[in-house]
From TrEMBL:
This is Methionine--tRNA ligase. It is found in: Cytoplasm. Pfam families: Anticodon_1, tRNA-synt_1g. A motif ('KMSKS' region) lies at residues 305-309. Residues 8-368 form the Methionyl/Leucyl tRNA synthetase domain. GO terms for molecular function: ATP binding; metal ion binding; methionine-tRNA ligase activity. The gene is metG. A motif ('HIGH' region) lies at residues 14-24. It comes from Agromyces agglutinans. Is required not only for elongation of protein synthesis but also for the initiation of all mRNA translation through initiator tRNA(fMet) aminoacylation.
Length: 519
RNA sequence: GGGGCGGUAGCUCAGCCGGUCAGAGCAGUGGACUCAUAAUCCAUCGGUCACGGGUUCAAGUCCCGUCCGCCCUACCA
């Protein structure tokens, strides 16, 4: 079904000046689960993440800290962003930094091509400039002045009048691609997902596109515009190109052909850049547009979008230190309908950890391993004659396998987990109904006992495979305890119910130990 | 100002193109069971589907309006 085909997935690249919070980690984890799932389905998978290191903000903070912008970026990448991936257990294939030669050189090639082909022109950017902030302001950032500045627009931060400045800039003819973009959205209704994001994008494009200013000459921390080195490429234009420079654009045609196009996973706040400007850039360069752009929702804390300024920003380690990376991954991807906004609360996290991971899955694994150990001396029994209940479990294993994979292909991560979880619930119910502990008391029921345990053991093996993209650590432990060959990540997830398991179980520590009430 | 999304049981949310749509999980309550991480299983309490109109044989489900919340509004990413 999925053998060999190419699957390339990306996250946005992190702006290194930000502080990592669970929103960043959420995006990473979502893309990682999808990537792992495709990889385990036998696809030629590539997952990319990285960092965006150019721009005035970084130059400014680096200067303020007395180091070069490159040194500043190096430090943030090493201290904050690479560690974030470890914290939430992301298995990316590549990590691109926009300051790497493979990126900068090919951004220039791309830009030169667009320039040569007439998609870029020289224009004049006009905007309100605040001397205090040293940057241009949007009108929404300005307020009416009072007192001596009555009647003038002033900066909301400094309450001083802003100046209307003009600056020579290079512009990309985004507007020339409006019709082709609309045709794209029309032909491929799933190009922008979810539906709500698509509608929003349609609205923007229909209401008209303005050309994008893509260069700056007021600072120099960026990729130089090849035909005019007094300008550097505007940060967004630079950043978006990471998706192709990372897979060989401009220097390795074979690799590029193998990977591109990508499925982009982004937060809905940057949908405009990914679903409108980016495809337009690619069209201009004569390249294929992305496979799709998925805009996920916000994490809400106390009903509002999480943010540092409102002190609702939460560092991922705060969660993983207490519950572990598996729980982090499971919680955000199962509790939130992927694409929708989701509420985060410690109470909800703790409750789901306890009810679903500890009591549901963890305890199931524990009781099955314990009974095989206790009643069969650890030797995995083989099934005898099968009853209707046994066959029903087999059917659910198959259904969970098929449904979860189908959901992943639609990027419905939460549905995939829910489909797999039906097997958790079914197995717990099966054990209660079949009562192997009662069968064990009667030697005459030995065959039935072994059959029940064999069925439960097999179901647990299927679960280990199905949940491995979401719970890599716990399922690896479980796989070992099941005595199954190879690694759980090495098993075909699209055929999880057919996995080859083992012959002897070994002790299994609690997969999700009880956690003392946090906060 | 313009635009988007949302307001469904205590909590978090499903409900696609109108007709068993009034649901799930958690929490609560009652019971069963003991293999297991005081876990599991069964049953059960619980909602004027924000409000007001309208269309229709029939509306959380479509239309209009109101209120409330969040977000976007184009160069900080």
């Amino acid at each position: 079904m999925a053998d060999g085909s190419s699957f390339y997935i990306t996250t946005p690249i992190f702006y290194v000046n930000d502080v990592p919070h669970i929103g960043h980690a959420y995006t990473e984890v979502a893309a990682d689960v999808i990537a792992r799932w495709h990889r385990q389905a036998g696809e030629d998978t590539w997952s990319l993440t990285g960092t965006d290191e150019h721009g005035q903000k970084i130059l400014r903070t680096a200067t303020a800290n007395g180091v070069t912008p490159q040194e500043w970026a190096d430090k943030l990448v090493a201290d904050a962003w690479v560690p974030l991936l470890e914290t939430v257990d992301v298995a990316n294939d590549d990590f691109i930094r926009t300051t790497e030669p493979r990126h900068e050189q090919n951004v220039q090639k791309f830009l030169q091509k667009l320039y040569d082909d007439g998609h870029i022109y020289t224009g004049e950017y006009e905007g309100y400039y605040c001397v205090g902030c040293e940057e241009y302001k949007q009108e929404s950032e300005l307020v009416a002045g009072t007192g001596e500045y009555e009647g003038q627009l002033v900066c909301a931060i400094h309450s001083k009048p802003v100046e209307l400045l003009h600056e020579k800039n290079y512009f990309f003819r985004t507007s020339a691609f409006a019709e082709r973009l609309l045709a794209l959205y029309e032909e491929r209704p799933d190009f922008v997902q979810p539906e709500s994001a698509r509608n929003e994008v349609l609205g923007w494009v229909r209401s008209g596109l303005a050309d994008l200013s893509i260069s700056r000459s007021t600072f120099d921390w960026g990729v130089k515009v090849p035909w005019d080195e007094t300008h550097v490429v505007y940060v967004w234009f630079d950043a978006l190109l990471n998706y192709i420079t990372a897979v060989g654009y401009g220097q390795d045609d074979e690799e590029f052909a193998r990977r591109w196009p990508a499925q982009h996973i982004v937060g809905k706040d940057i949908l405009r850049f990914h679903a409108v400007i980016w495809p337009a850039m690619l069209m201009a360069a004569g390249l294929e547009v992305p496979r799709g752009v998925f805009g996920h929702g916000w994490l809400l804390v106390g009903g509002e979008k999480m943010s540092k300024s409102k002190l609702t920003g939460i560092a991922p380690e705060q969660i993983t230190d207490v519950f572990g990376s598996d729980a982090f991954r499971y919680y955000f991807l199962s509790a939130i309908s992927f694409g929708q906004d989701g509420s985060f609360s410690w109470e909800d996290l703790a409750a789901r950890y306890q009810a679903e991971l500890a009591n549901g899955f963890g305890n199931l694994a524990s009781r099955v391993i314990a009974m095989v150990t206790r009643y069969c001396e650890g030797v995995v029994p083989s099934a005898g004659a099968l009853t209707e209940a046994d066959l029903e479990i087999s059917a659910i294993e198959r259904r969970a396998t098929e449904d979860s994979w189908a959901a992943i292909e639609r990027l419905a991560v939460h549905e995939a987990i829910a489909a797999a979880w039906e097997l958790v619930d079914a197995l717990n119910g099966y054990l209660t109904a079949e009562e192997p502990w009662s069968l064990a008391k009667d030697p005459a029921k030995r065959e039935r006992l072994e059959t029940v345990l064999a069925v439960a053991y097999h179901g647990l093996g299927t679960l280990a495979v199905l949940l491995s993209p979401v719970l890599p650590k716990a399922t690896a432990k479980l796989w070992t305890a099941l005595g199954a060959p190879g690694t759980v990540q090495g098993q075909r997830i699209d055929r999880a119910h057919e996995a080859t398991l083992g012959e002897r179980v070994s002790a299994l520590e609690a997969l999700f130990p009880r956690v003392e009430v946090a906060e």
